[in-house]
Amino acid sequence: MNDDLLRIGFGAAFQGVEAGLDPGRMNELFRRSAEVLHKGGEEGSDGFGWFGLPDQSPAPLNETISWLRGFDTVVQIGIGGSALGNQMLSGALCHPFYNELTRKERKGPRFYVADNADPEGTAAILDMIDPSRTAFIAVSKSGATAETMANFLFFLEALKKNGINDPSENVLVITDPVKGALRAFAAETGCRSLTIPGSVGGRFSVLSAVGLLSAGAQGADIGSLLMGASAMKRNLVEADTFEKNPAWILAEASMLNYQHGRNMIVLMPYADSLNSFSEWFCQLWGESLGKALQGSTPVRALGAIDQHSQVQLYAEGPDDKFFLILTPTARHDTLMSSPGFQSLESLEYLEGKGMGSMLELEARATAAALIKAGKPVLWMEIPVVDAYRLGSLIFFFEYATALAGLAMGLNPFDQPGVEQGKKYTYGLMGRPGFEKDADEAQERFSSAMSLSVNV
Amino acid sequence: MNDDLLRIGFGAAFQGVEAGLDPGRMNELFRRSAEVLHKGGEEGSDGFGWFGLPDQSPAPLNETISWLRGFDTVVQIGIGGSALGNQMLSGALCHPFYNELTRKERKGPRFYVADNADPEGTAAILDMIDPSRTAFIAVSKSGATAETMANFLFFLEALKKNGINDPSENVLVITDPVKGALRAFAAETGCRSLTIPGSVGGRFSVLSAVGLLSAGAQGADIGSLLMGASAMKRNLVEADTFEKNPAWILAEASMLNYQHGRNMIVLMPYADSLNSFSEWFCQLWGESLGKALQGSTPVRALGAIDQHSQVQLYAEGPDDKFFLILTPTARHDTLMSSPGFQSLESLEYLEGKGMGSMLELEARATAAALIKAGKPVLWMEIPVVDAYRLGSLIFFFEYATALAGLAMGLNPFDQPGVEQGKKYTYGLMGRPGFEKDADEAQERFSSAMSLSVNV
Fold first, then answer.
1. Catalytic: B39?
2. Cα B68 from Cα A308, distance rounded (Å)
3. What is the ipTM of this complex?
4. Is the distance from CB of A323 to CB of A378 less than 8 angstroms?
5. Which residues of chain A lie closer than 8 angstroms to B119, CB-CB?
6. Which chain B residues contact residue A16 at CB under 8 A?
7. pLDDT of A235-285, one tens digit each?
């Protein structure tokens, strides 16, 4: 295994759009954008706080992690950026069936995420836990996120029903340092509380307490995670030409392909452990860059599974996608052997090969087939999926996304487009002050139902 | 609860493309396509077998299901259409943490799917099972699917290591009636075997033994599933005008929106239990319609979670998507109540409301916000997520997908575009007869690596 964090092959990333490449302009654009990024934004701008997260020490979280590890179960109550990062870290660094292992095998409390406000999902979590022996981490910067607060009420009620009227023994809130209901709740009850740094947005918060606590409770090496992120940061900050900087290359390739009608970016890792990484990436990319009538749509795929689901469309459908194929070069591999049945003779070609080696060859084969079909492909390799390399990969995508946003002249750290739906929900829920929104929502919704049919 | 299987509101499904609507032409086109579908295709055509599946009796599967239920664990070894349907049925009809329940609570064996050829994922399944007390259902029509056969070898080896040299006690194969390694394996070992009807393709096979056995073993009511599918079939076959047939409407809306640059179709159910339904839909839609340089890309979303991840892009990004918002109108709801903390006063608007009612209002709010932003939205309602309605929903999407394919002049039942990658994989694996493919794959892959950078 080599020491590199990430290797990319970009010889086919601009397939069909090479004519648009202008290294001079590009270097200038990205140098300027990187400068803004590295100094933490222009004066008065916000959202750059994530850039400093890799350099923090994990030590201040140790006491909280020890506290969490004293419970049977940890439930994270949060949605979007307060859940996807946790699921990504658990998916990449924990056993795939972590909660089904015995406590001894697991080496940490069981872990659930209460993100959606689906009463059936929330009730199912309650089926699995003893609330009195469960730590609840409630995460909302504003303290107003409807789904999160609904789940928070639900689990407070469950504590009460289990005889726990003082929730401070079981609850930790992570929220704004001053404002909002969760901050007030901490003051009222004296429960544990941590702060989401003001300049860190939800989708960029995984390397803060928001993401690190649950991973640490599950036994992940969060020190290595941060060190990996920090190493990537150093490398990216230092590389100041297009040819040397994979984040510049990804940003440019996504922009150029988008301008040429490729309005989707497909992230297709070849590793089960990176499946939830793609979900996390989809929020990061979609919310950061999808605005002002622009934005390529992130599409999550998983190799080799999606060879049997989406590759037909990828290969023979329209030329409207830019592909990122991501694979670790080392895995815990297992040799395939023949069980000695004559009927399985046709499988001789598998014998003596590693199943993981086959998976990597499938990644290469898919890249080759897409390239043959004229599609743009960026090849991405990490040495292995471990905490150090995962941290570096997280930071890589955060950096590339922010850089692309700045280069496109967008604010990659806001999400004004979600406000309308929130107001409509408040209105329809009868929240005081949102009566006009209720009327408007009803009117818009009625237009959908103006033509309807039942079967 | 009403008796309907599905209600759609399509007043906003053609937003912005109304000018292209031509009911006369449309009725003619779909009437012709439906005719082809109902008679099982033109002479010599293949793949229409799924159309008959709803009308089969589940009784012939009973004995096999009883056999499966005698085991501690069932492992389905299959990929794509031999896995996604199983995951969809389990996700919709079983407890979300089914495998974590006790045997008494579960009422059936634990269930795992070995789909990917990721050695870490496969080894993790082995960690969880006692092979000697596990039933393995190996599914591959050809008996040659590399990932499936690799996993099959792996678990045969595991049986052997557990002292089981005669796998016939533990293995069931579902494969071609005559051809292939799995059929030969059944003949050699005398293990149980079932047949994938010749005219049923993988992505249309969920209502055959491929999908039904594992669901039945888990205690799902597969009789109701088939009855629901059958009821939907009757309704769709009878409704022979655009205004009366929701499948015609979906097919037309997707085609017309696609022709106007909306090259994505987003399926966004508002129910955790339908999350894996979307994965199943993505294969069905993508592989059936993504060919001949055409095809809208299916995008999976989940409400309300993706309001906090993708809705920013959906609302303010480019006008390149057609949205299907799907919600059950009844759920096992739970009332939200106030736990009596002064700090949580701002949540009063939640008190006394159902969490599930809120989720449905969020679906309406999202639809309204997207409609306001000028995006086309098809509203879809089912009464509840149960076996009967799930069966009907499955058949609805199969029918609409096949119909759209026929109307577009495509063969919705083939997948020629996956062959190239398979050949490249065989070549790279050193399988005899694929030497030229190995060279070509290597050459294409090298073009990606002709420019590379490490950090």
1. no
2. 26
3. 0.97
4. yes
5. 331-334, 354-356, 359
6. none
7. 999 999 999 999 999 999 999 999 999 999 999 999 999 999 999 999 999
